[in-house]
Every structure is written in structure tokens, then in C-alpha cells.
Amino acid sequence: KVTRHTKSKKTLYNNLELFRVNEPGIPVEMLDVKDAVMAFSWEPQGSRFAIIHAENPTSTKVNVTFYDMFRMSEPEKKKGKKKSSGKELVAEVNKVETLEGKQCNCIFWSPAGRTIILAALGDSASGTLEFYDVDNKSLVIKEHYRANQVLWDPSGRSLATTVSQPIGGGHFKFAMDNGYIVWSFQGKQISQQSFETFYQFQWRPREKLFNKKEIAEVSKNLKKYEKQFNAFDEAKKRKLRLDETRGKRKNRAAFRSTLARLKEIRANMKQERMALLDGYDSEDESNFTTREVTIETILSSKEELVY
Prior knowledge:
about 30% strand, alpha+beta
């Protein structure tokens, strides 16, 4: 990145030099940005990159622009040959789109690509989190007040935002906000935990992610995998339901066992009870007279004059 100033020294702008290291001769392309560039980030799985830029580095409203190192182009028609119906990939930097008027100071691409987080982090920032799908152009806005870190899960399926204090110790004035929130890549909150002292959050390392060939294979057989995952999910839900009701079933069995034991004790004492009552059996229905009484009660009444 080359930073240049105007003659008045009041405005600065940047030139970005992009090197194609995988091509013969390592060609360089220059990208002129007529604003100050505050952040730059490559898409891990793809050829795109994103920058945060504004006319003034201290601006609260910034723009986020996405570029692609390649563009799709119509093939040139050669004499004597039919024009190809498909498009070809050309190595040329082109602007994909610009999101204007954003309140962010950091950008974080998903390890799987496609999804990016536009975050406003720091003590003086709002803690706004914008989950943006670059392919579908869908945007979900969330917030984690006073968040100072965004950490993607290596798979790209979830991420954590944290409010953590310096590990060196000392007084941390935002200790009341310490903790983390785990989100899905679509912006849905999964869990939240708060701590009186919180220093660091790390994801378990992942050996590797699928390459493009493996991703294509999974997409091709998605229906088969979907059935397997649904069966696994149902089995897991059933196990959770059984675990939740295990205590109730145990209490119900204990109650029924106690009730059966008391009934047996009462049955064994029947002769003793009859002896004390001069042979009267209080459990014999023939010793009782049954009378049915019907009582009618008017709950409400309404009179209407019919002409």
C-alpha cells in the first residue's frame, strides 16, 4: 500500500500494488483508491478482497468495497471459427460492489469464504456486527456492545465475539461486559456467557478444510448426506428427550411401588379391622345405600321482548 498526500496535506489517498505470484513474471497491477484505506482483507477461499475506505481516516461513516482479481469476459471471435457460447476467466482486477455509509473499522472473512463480518470494535465503537453474504447480497445486523475481538471457527460455520481484558492484569473498566457470544455464520445467536474476569477465547484447531473438488463432491451427494444427518439429529433429539424424562419416570416408578406396598399392607390388616368393628366390612359395597341427587343451578338469564 502506497499512501499519497495532496498538496494541501489535508487529503490522502492510496495506491494498492497487487502481485500475481502464481503467474510467470509475477505481474503487478495498480489499484488507485481516491480515499484513505483503513483495512484490507483477502477472502481465504477465493479471489476476492475487501477494503474499508473513507475520505478522512477519522470518519465515522465509511465505505466497504469488494474487488475480484479475475473477471468473466466474452471470448474474442476469431476468423473462420464460431463464437464460443461460454465465458472465459480473465486475470484483471475489477470492482464487484461498494457498500456505502457503514459504521465499521474491521473486516473478517469466513475461512470458508463468501461471508464477511463488518465489525465496529473498540472502546468507542458501537459493537455493530454486519453479517454480509457477498454472493447473495444478504445482510444481517447484530450487536455485541464493547466487543473487541471477532474469532471465526476454522470451519467457517460459526464465530465468536468477545469482550476480554488485558492478560497482564490491572484494572479493566469494562469488566461488567466481559464474556463472549457465539453466532452462526448467518447471524443467529447460539450461546452467550459472561465472566467477571475474561482474558482469551480460542477455537479448537481444525486439521484442514475441504478443497474445491471435495466441496463439489459433497454438493453433488447432498441429498444422501442430508438423510444421514437428519437421522443422526433425530436420534440425538430422542436421547435428549429420554434424558429429560428419566427423572420423572424414576419418580413415577417409586410412587407406584410405594402405593402397591401400602395396598398390600391394608389388605393384610382387613381381618383385624373387621374384628374391631364387630364383623363390619367397610369395603363391602352392599353395606352402603346409594342415592343420586341432581341440583340445577342457573348461572345467568336474559330476558328479551319479542314484538
